[in-house]
Design brief:
The chain has 152 residues and is mainly α. The chain contains 5 helices and no strands.
């Protein structure tokens, strides 16, 4: 019976050693899993922080672009309201209309070119000689009123 007790004790010691070895292995595995889990949490935290910074930068850039867009709209409105801008736009419309008339009306082109050349020469004369001096003091009538009177 003593052999049985020794056999039982030897089996119990062997089972205890195997149990302790398995317990140590499982503790090492649990520590490794915990370490890996902590690593993944840190990676996730870092990624979320980086993405948050990126989103904040995008929001700031978006707001900056909205402000620039608003400023540009105001600038365009201001630019179009400056003196002379409307006149330039009107001159462009007149030029387009004159070009269309030149193409579509056969007799208009020659008359238009002659009138344009006379007007340019007259305009250049306003900067030379006595005529500019007199224009400052004496208002002049345009040919447009004379033509209107002739039509009546």
């Amino acid at each position: 019976m003593q052999d049985r007790i020794y056999g039982f004790l030897a089996g119990a010691v062997l089972a205890l050693v195997v149990f302790l070895v398995m317990k140590v292995k499982s503790m090492h595995q649990a520590a490794a899993v915990k370490k890996e889990l902590e690593k993944y949490r840190k990676m996730l935290s870092d990624r979320m922080e980086i993405e948050q910074e990126g989103i904040q930068k995008l929001k700031a850039e978006n707001e900056k672009l909205r402000q620039e867009n608003s400023n540009l709209k105001v600038s365009v409105q201001t630019w179009s309201q400056k003196p002379g801008r409307r006149e330039l736009q009107r001159l462009q419309v007149y030029q387009t209309a004159a070009d269309r008339l030149t193409i579509n009306s056969p007799g208009f082109g020659a008359a238009w070119q002659a009138a344009l050349k006379e007007s340019e020469e007259e305009f250049e004369q306003t900067y030379i000689g006595v005529q500019p001096f007199l224009r400052k003091f004496i208002p002049t009538k345009t040919d447009a009123t004379i033509i209107k009177e002739l039509e009546d």
